[in-house]
Specification:
It comes from Pollutimonas nitritireducens. This protein is mostly helical. The protein has one domain. Helices cover about 50% and strands about 0% of the residues. The protein contains four helices and no strands.
Length: about 80
Amino acid sequence: MKPEDLELLVRRTMPYGRYKGRIIADLPGNYLNWFAREGFPPGEIGRLLMLMQEIDHNGLGALLDPLRKRGGSGTA
């Protein structure tokens, strides 16, 4: 993980699928867990989904609150 990946979680949107357009940090845990079971996509999106699944699974979502408050929401 790169430190800037945490900020990307509150800025990047899901590019496809059921939750297309939703901020990665806002994806539901069951969706992230599905990727963990079935396999994460390649590239940056897969890396970010994997990171978000770990954060969600370990109950660490509050780590992203300061980034959200900085106005990190939106697409990049």
